[in-house]
């Protein structure tokens, strides 16, 4: 059995874990920003699907992955724009609209796929990886972590970028105020709706990017329902992370590693149904909540539309 | 007179659904009857669709998914309409319920022989998106074929995850891992996720830096191949449906099970340019042996048994 | 359109002038063609009952709302103040009636809120500015403390500071004294004086006529959204405090001579030998993240007695009330009601035994804002007969009794079905009073019962409390308003840092003794 | 400004006007529901036109196959049964301010336990008793499944959106494991539970194919509605939901009530699973997950957590899903179009409610 776990295989598993984690990371980071600003963005699954579809379309027709990421982010943002208009600007129920958008985008992307790709099933060529010198020579970890597409490094950098924004910029203060006490932000001269709109659009862009990554790099193609609940995992990650982007990264990696663990155990011939192994990350998190669970620090105004002077 | 076929997904998957629909159309055409296609019905409750198709006058309902094998016989009894179901050999009822538990295990066995012959790394992989009986029997037969050809060839078996039929990214990820474990031929079974497997094969190099090949099942993905398709265990369900229609006319419907096999080419291995002619000749010889019974290939349907088999062949 | 009679009054010297400003809300005309002139170097006091439209007026000056009719002149120019940002840019800084700080941010971060979004918060710059301002104002703020850790008084100071940091030319204070101690109020008065001397204009809203008379230069009185009178500075200076107060009273309530607040405490006899109804011994509460703890609290209250708890807000008053009511876990000590120990009882059981708690947080915990007035009367009796029988709601019983209470307590409400949050604060308070004084009460804890209420409502509430004691109930009255305590209580205990630092009989020199205790000196 | 109440005198008058208002209110609500649906159909029709399908033909089929044909209406009514139970459970939770988003996990576990137990029970007891016992077991199992989120919320303040979402992921997997490993029917090759014979399932109504689960579902949602609006218990839950601090202040046992809410809500979701299995499906297959919960959530909001309105919206949803499936097949549109249609209907209904609210406000001003 030891022979099975060659270095190449182990690093492939780790590579797979990272690949599976990146869409969750991007979705979680996006959701986190919305939630910080007081918007519970349940439509993120729909945004990811829009990103996956448009991201694939962009990359496939242009031949450029980067253009694909751009169109993917744009697709997510377009859905987010609807959410921002309906839930931020005019204050419709965020859960109704979020679920409606998710259902709608599931249907719409499946429909488009049916008319466009369901005969040809186009697939993208292999992705170019950016090799980080020296680090990539580390056994096992090197090829898994440091021979990734550039976007992966950017996504990880984004974690720290987000942390910087939240802790070190006025925008970070604005976002937190928009989620905790929007009226106070308003009288401080900052437009709450604009702040929240920015947050929701950013969420859309990140979710769309996550979807595009999932389609273009994770799968290399688009098929209906490709996100398979990744958006909902993103919501869970964002809520568990309590406002800290690094925790989203840890959470996303935990899920990725558990997925790879499933494969590892099967290849090793260990006879545990995949269902049970897939329960592991959730079990781990539930146990952590039971042991250390305190009031999750969710923003006070989460889910409540803001209207100036309302009472 | 018309027949209706119900499939869980769209009939454009170069696989289970498409083969079923194409076969139903062909069989109906041959018999001169209408065909109604209800596709993409999902894995939920199909009773409404069954009832509606029956009330619209279909005289045979082909419930083309193992998930429909509870609902369809019930509707058959309720409305006295003959139905055909899969994966339920014990469910026969004269005039009402016929079963066509199909298995390409004979073909999968040949595919295993082929894979073992052609693997440069002496390591092949099986990737599946789920573990329904018909796939299990093919996975098992494939592994048996590999071992029969060369006991030293390693077989790696991986399931993507629960309900992962449309998890293309998972298909790609798991396939990449299996390739990294040394496999240079992947025997893949999955619906949407099989495109992810294909993608992994197309974009990942084998351990020796060469091509990884893909062996598909049920459908023929040649039209969308980029040169990585080694073969496919292609099913042709038309004879089955044709026999059903004939049995209906002869009033013997529901008295026998239908199957597909190498004998009448309802299961066959796809010849692609990637298979050298001498190998193909050897495979054809093996085909004869399987047909004649000289090489017995027994189907194994149970997931646990398949896994047990994999463990034993992996060692 | 309203009268434009005082249009000529739109003086060049006005920083801001309102001309015929009208604002309507569903079912109410909150401001009815109001004219107002605000000048530098003046404290302009706005007076009026609850719901008179003061805050609405402020909302329009701060850019929260736009007038339906009329116009606002800034420096003589007609200006539409379209947003809070715009108001800030015009130099209008407002301290709102309701706290407008983000509790999860630090004081410094709150002060920095509003800067360009891409910048790093300029903390050093802020510290320097704040140091300068606090020195001239004579206040201290903990810049790096979380706002949620500050007492309400401290928060109010932060809000004033925020208006100053922004270089406001016009500072608006909406009921800013309601949370302050007498000393704090005096300091705020002095501060306002210094600011107007520096050339600022101040709009000061209060319900306390003494403050108006003491700090103001000019007084405008609003009634039912209409401006019913103004006392200009010339006249203000000419009159003495008493004369001003009686003039205001006349403007607000019509004919009436004296300062109605200066009611004498009726002399009451309390049976000193009677067994205490409530006996608290060595009560302790552990501190939490956001609240101080309590330690060794001991006191008795006899039937008919009114014990006051004085102290600066945030010294454990709320914790004391909640610990007695059973809403907060205690860490030791005993509470006896009529001699029976009640520490182990739940909130509901304590209420059953006759312990009642009138909270100071009327909308936060006292009522369910979206529920009708009628249901809110019985929030603490859900399930009890005759309003519920076998768990089923008896609409008729509830409505009948609610209607009776509405009459008895003079609750002004459009209907019994009106969501209680739509009522004015004073009327919500009446609902709470009715609920807590319902049959079976023996000991009643009143926490800041007149906070935010207008004069009429304040007086009515105080009378209710006196009547309660007169009926032989034991009353614990928690208030930050020393005048209120002095005018009502038999004894006054002073709370500081979670413990009682002394108890004073309310006789002649109680004021000084309590005052000394409050600032940390022995009585 | 402030209107004095003249209680006894005006109470009756008030009631009379209230009755009139209610009738007009119902008309108004109908208008505000049907209008937006029409608008949504027009928008969705444009999409159909874009893909070259005649919208009128499509809607014709939706109505015919979902509503007006005897077969269609029976299917629609049958589909409603589990949705009604789920909606009832969500009404309890949402009115009490608890975001139970774990309905699908509770539903599946209820379904699996009902499917596992009923075929065994019918062998040893009368069918009605077997069904009853299975219902109870399904309910209890779903309740137990909600216990952890309930306890965490009640005693630790852990946000239940996170915990219930995770429990639903876990529950889905667990249901599969149970089907594949524990309750598997040894007689089939496909992993599924034993099948409850058709004649032992919930009786059908009046010789139609409508399951009597529909009546149970209607009863459940109406009882829930009445309990929530007319009883002390319901009021307590609503207090906890509307203002938890007021609930503590009023001496309500908030942790206990929280747990009760989760138990009731999850129990109803479990019953939804059971009614679908015992009334229609007969067994549970591995990896079966109809995900009704997600579709019912917006419906409950649009109904403003009113049981009767929820019945209407659930009916609408069923018509769309039954009729849409059929129409899509006949016209060669992928079935997924139904999702788009439902989504547009939800958004337009939400928008209409907003516009209505705005209009009322400006009228009152
Ligand atoms: N959202 C609302 N919609 C309709 N009417 C309202 C609304 N809010 C308040 N009112 C009306 O406002 C009146 C007074 O309410 P308001 O909250 O302004 O009181 P207030 O001025 O703050 O008084 P207090 O000092 O007692 O708190 C009530 O008669 C009520 O009918
Ligand atoms: N946003 C709003 N929506 C509806 N009505 C409002 C709103 N704001 C104020 N009102 C109404 O306008 C009237 C004036 O309220 P406002 O708050 O200005 O009174 P106020 O004089 O500040 O009272 P208080 O002394 O209690 O602070 C009240 O009757 C109130 O109901
Ligand atoms: Mg006010
Ligand atoms: Mg007020």
Question: What do these coordinates show?
Answer:
The complex is a heterotetramer of chains A (311), B (315), C (523) and D (365). Helices cover 70% and strands 1% of the residues of chain A. Chain A is mostly helical and 311 residues long. Among the domains of chain C are: 2-99 and 166-258, Rossmann fold; 278-354 and 440-518, P-loop containing nucleotide triphosphate hydrolases (Rossmann fold, 3-Layer(aba) Sandwich). Chain C is built from 18 helices and 22 strands. Chain C has a six-stranded mixed beta sheet, sandwiched between helices. In chain C, strands 16-19-20-13-21-22 form a six-stranded mixed beta sheet, sandwiched between helices. In chain C, helix 7 crosses helix 9 and helix 15 (425-436) runs parallel beside helix 16. Chain C starts with 15 loop residues before the first strand and ends in a 5-residue tail after the last helix. With 365 residues, chain D is mostly helical. Chains A and C meet through helix 7 and helix 8 of A and helix 2 and helix 3 of C. The structure holds adenosine-5'-triphosphate (2 copies) and magnesium ion (MG) (2 copies). One adenosine-5'-triphosphate binds next to strand 2 and helix 1 of chain C. One magnesium ion (MG) binds at residues 50, 425, 452 of chain C.
- Overall strand count of chain D: 0
| Unreliable spans of chain A | none
Helix content of chain D: over 70%
Instruction: Assign an overall shape of chain A.
Output: globular
Which hetero ligands occur in this complex? adenosine-5'-triphosphate, magnesium ion
How far apart are the termini of chain A?
67 Å
> What is the H/E string of chain A?
HHHHEHEHHHHHHH
The average pLDDT of chain D is 83
End-to-end span of chain D in angstroms? Answer: 13 Å
Return residue spans of chain D where pLDDT drops below 50 for at least 5 consecutive residues: 1-20
Short description:
The complex is a heterotetramer of chains A (311), B (315), C (523) and D (365). Chain A has 311 residues and is an all-alpha fold.
Keywords:
heterotetramer, A: 311 residues, mainly alpha, two-stranded antiparallel ribbon, globular, B: 315 residues, five-stranded parallel β-sheet, binds adenosine-5'-triphosphate, binds magnesium ion
């Amino acid at each position: 059995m030891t022979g099975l776990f060659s270095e190449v295989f182990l690093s492939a598993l780790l590579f797979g874990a990272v690949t599976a984690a990146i869409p969750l990371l991007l979705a979680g980071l996006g959701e986190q920003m919305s939630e910080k600003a007081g918007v519970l963005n349940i439509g993120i699954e729909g945004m990811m699907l829009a990103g996956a579809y448009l991201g694939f379309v962009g990359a496939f027709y242009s031949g450029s992955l980067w253009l694909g990421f751009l169109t993917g982010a744009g697709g997510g943002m377009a859905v987010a724009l609807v959410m921002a208009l309906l839930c931020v600007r005019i204050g419709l129920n965020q859960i109704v609209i979020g679920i409606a958008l998710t259902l709608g985008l599931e249907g719409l992307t499946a429909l488009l796929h049916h008319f466009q790709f369901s005969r040809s099933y186009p697939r993208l060529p292999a992705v170019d990886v950016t090799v980080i010198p020296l680090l990539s020579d580390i056994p096992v970890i090197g090829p898994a972590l440091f021979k990734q597409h550039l976007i992966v490094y950017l996504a990880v950098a984004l974690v720290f970028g987000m942390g910087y924004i939240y802790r070190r910029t006025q925008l970070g203060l604005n976002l937190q105020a928009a989620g905790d006490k929007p009226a106070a932000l308003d009288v401080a001269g900052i437009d709450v709706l604009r702040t929240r709109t920015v947050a929701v659009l950013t969420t859309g862009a990140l979710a769309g990017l996550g979807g595009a990554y999932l389609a273009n790099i994770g799968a290399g193609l688009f098929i209906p329902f490709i996100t398979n609940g990744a958006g909902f995992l993103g919501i869970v990650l964002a809520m568990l992370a309590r406002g800290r982007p690094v925790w989203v990264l840890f959470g996303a990696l935990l899920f990725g590693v558990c997925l790879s663990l499933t494969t590892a155990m099967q290849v090793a011939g260990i006879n545990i149904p995949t269902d049970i192994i897939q329960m592991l990350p959730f079990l781990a998190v539930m146990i952590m909540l039971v042991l250390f669970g305190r009031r999750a620090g969710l923003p006070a105004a989460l889910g409540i539309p803001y209207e100036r002077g309302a009472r | 007179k018309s027949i209706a076929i119900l499939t869980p997904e769209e009939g454009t998957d170069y696989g289970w659904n498409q083969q079923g629909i194409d076969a139903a159309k062909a069989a109906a055409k041959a018999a001169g009857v209408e065909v109604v296609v209800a596709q993409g019905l999902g894995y939920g409750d199909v009773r409404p669709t069954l009832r509606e198709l029956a009330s619209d006058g279909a005289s045979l309902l082909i419930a083309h998914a193992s998930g429909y094998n509870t609902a369809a016989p019930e509707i058959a009894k309720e409305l006295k309409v003959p139905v055909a179901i899969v994966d339920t050999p014990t469910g026969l009822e004269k005039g009402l319920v016929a079963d066509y538990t199909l298995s390409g295990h004979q073909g999968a066995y040949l595919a295993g022989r082929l894979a073992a012959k052609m693997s440069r790394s002496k390591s092949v992989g099986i990737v599946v998106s789920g573990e329904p009986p018909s796939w299990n029997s093919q996975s098992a037969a494939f592994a048996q074929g590999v071992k029969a050809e060369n006991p030293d060839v390693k077989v790696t078996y991986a399931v993507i995850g629960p309900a992962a039929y449309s998890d293309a990214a998972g298909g790609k990820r798991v396939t990449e891992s299996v390739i990294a474990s040394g496999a240079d031929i992947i025997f893949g079974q999955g619906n949407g996720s099989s495109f992810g497997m294909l993608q992994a094969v197309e974009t990942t190099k084998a351990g020796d830096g060469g091509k990884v090949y893909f062996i598909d099942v049920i459908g023929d993905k040649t039209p969308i191949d980029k040169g990585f398709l080694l073969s496919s265990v292609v099913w042709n369900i038309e004879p089955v449906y044709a026999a059903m229609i004939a049995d209906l006319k002869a009033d013997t419907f529901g008295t026998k099970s239908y199957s597909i096999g190498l004998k009448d080419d309802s299961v066959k291995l796809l010849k692609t340019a990637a298979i050298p002619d001498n190998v193909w000749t050897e495979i054809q010889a093996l085909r004869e042996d399987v047909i004649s019974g000289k090489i017995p290939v027994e189907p194994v349907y149970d997931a646990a048994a398949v896994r047990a088999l994999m463990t034993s062949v992996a060692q | 359109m309203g009268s434009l009679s005082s249009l000529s009054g739109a003086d060049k010297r006005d920083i801001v002038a309102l001309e015929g400003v009208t604002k309507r809300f569903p079912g109410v005309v909150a401001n009815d063609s109001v004219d107002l002139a605000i000048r530098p170097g003046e404290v302009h006091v706005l007076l009026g009952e609850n719901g008179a439209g003061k805050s609405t007026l402020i909302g329009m000056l701060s850019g929260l709302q736009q007038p339906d009719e009329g116009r606002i002149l800034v420096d003589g120019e007609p200006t539409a103040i379209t947003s809070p940002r715009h108001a800030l840019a015009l130099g209008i800084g407002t301290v709102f009636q309701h706290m407008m700080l983000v509790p999860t941010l630090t004081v410094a971060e709150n002060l920095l809120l509003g800067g360009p979004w891409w910048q790093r918060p300029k903390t050093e710059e802020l510290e320097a500015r704040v140091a300068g301002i606090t020195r001239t104002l004579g206040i201290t703020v903990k810049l790096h403390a979380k706002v949620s850790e500050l007492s309400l008084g401290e928060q109010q100071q932060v809000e004033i500071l925020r208006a100053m940091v922004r270089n406001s030319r016009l500072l608006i204070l909406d009921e800013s004294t309601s949370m302050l101690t007498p000393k704090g109020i005096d300091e705020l008065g002095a501060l306002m004086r210094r600011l107007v001397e520096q050339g600022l204009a101040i709009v000061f809203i209060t319900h306390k006529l003494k403050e108006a008379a003491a700090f103001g230069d000019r007084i405008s009185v609003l009634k039912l959204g209409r401006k019913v009178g103004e006392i200009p500075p010339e006249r203000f200076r000419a009159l003495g405090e008493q004369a001003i107060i009686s003039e205001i009273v006349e403007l607000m309530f019509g004919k009436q001579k004296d300062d109605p607040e200066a009611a004498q405490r009726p002399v009451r006899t309390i049976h000193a030998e009677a067994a205490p109804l409530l006996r608290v011994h060595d009560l302790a509460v552990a501190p939490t993240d956001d609240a101080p703890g309590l330690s060794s609290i001991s006191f008795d209250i006899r039937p008919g007695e009114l014990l006051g708890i004085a102290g600066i807000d945030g010294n454990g008053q709320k914790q004391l009330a909640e610990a007695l009511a059973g809403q907060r876990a205690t860490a030791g000590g005993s509470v006896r009601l009529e001699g029976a120990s009640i520490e182990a009882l739940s909130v509901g059981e304590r209420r059953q035994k006759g312990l009642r708690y009138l909270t100071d947080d009327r909308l936060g915990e006292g009522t369910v804002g979206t529920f009708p007035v009628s249901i809110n009367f019985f929030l603490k009796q859900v399930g009890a007969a005759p309003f519920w029988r076998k768990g089923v709601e008896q609409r008729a019983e509830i409505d009948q009794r609610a209607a009776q209470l509405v009459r008895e307590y003079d609750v002004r409400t459009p209907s019994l079905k009106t969501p209680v949050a739509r009522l004015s604060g004073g009327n919500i308070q009446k609902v709470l009073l009715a609920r807590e004084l319902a049959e079976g009460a023996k000991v009643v804890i009143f926490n800041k019962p007149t906070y935010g209420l207008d004069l009429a409502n304040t007086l009515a509430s105080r009378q209710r409390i006196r009547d309660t004691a007169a009926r032989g109930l034991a009353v614990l009255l928690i208030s930050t308003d020393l005048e209120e305590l002095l005018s009502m209580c038999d004894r006054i205990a002073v709370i500081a840092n979670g413990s009682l630092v002394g108890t004073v009989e309310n006789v002649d020199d109680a004021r000084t003794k309590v005052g000394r205790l409050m600032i940390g000196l022995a009585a | 400004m402030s209107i004095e109440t003249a209680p006894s005198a005006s109470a009756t008058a008030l009631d009379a006007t209230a009755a009139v208002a209610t009738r007009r209110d119902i008309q108004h609500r109908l208008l505000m529901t049907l209008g937006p649906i029409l608008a949504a159909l027009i928008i969705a029709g444009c999409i159909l036109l874009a893909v070259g399908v005649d919208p009128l033909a499509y809607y014709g089929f939706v109505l015919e196959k979902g509503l007006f044909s005897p077969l269609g209406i029976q299917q629609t009514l049958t589909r409603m049964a589990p949705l009604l139970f789920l909606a009832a459970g969500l009404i309890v939770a949402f009115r009490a301010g608890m975001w139970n988003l774990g309905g699908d996990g509770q539903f599946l576990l209820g379904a699996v336990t009902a499917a596992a137990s009923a075929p065994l029970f019918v062998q040893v007891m009368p069918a009605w008793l077997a069904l009853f016992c299975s219902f109870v077991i399904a309910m209890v199992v779903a309740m137990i499944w909600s216990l952890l989120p309930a306890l965490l919320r009640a005693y630790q303040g852990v946000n239940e959106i996170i915990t219930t979402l995770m429990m639903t992921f876990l529950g889905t997997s667990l249901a599969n494991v149970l089907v594949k490993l524990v309750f598997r029917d040894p007689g089939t090759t496909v992993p599924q539970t034993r099948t409850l014979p058709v004649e032992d399932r919930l009786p059908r109504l009046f010789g139609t194919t409508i399951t009597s689960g529909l009546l149970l579902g209607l009863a459940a949602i109406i009882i829930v509605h009445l309990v929530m609006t007319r009883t002390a218990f319901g009021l307590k839950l609503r207090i906890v939901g509307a203002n938890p601090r007021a609930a503590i202040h009023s001496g309500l046992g908030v942790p206990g009530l929280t747990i009760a809410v989760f138990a009731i809500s999850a129990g109803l979701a479990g019953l939804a699973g059971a009614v679908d299995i015992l009334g229609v499906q007969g067994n549970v297959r591995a990896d079966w997950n109809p995900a009704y919960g997600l579709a019912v959530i917006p419906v409950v909001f649009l109904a403003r957590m009113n049981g009767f309105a929820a019945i209407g919206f659930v009916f609408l949803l069923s018509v769309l899903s039954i009729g849409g499936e059929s129409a899509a097949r006949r016209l060669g549109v992928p079935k997924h179009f139904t999702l788009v249609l439902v989504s547009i209907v939800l958004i337009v209904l939400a928008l209409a409610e907003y516009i209505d609210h705005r209009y009322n406000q400006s009228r009152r001003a």
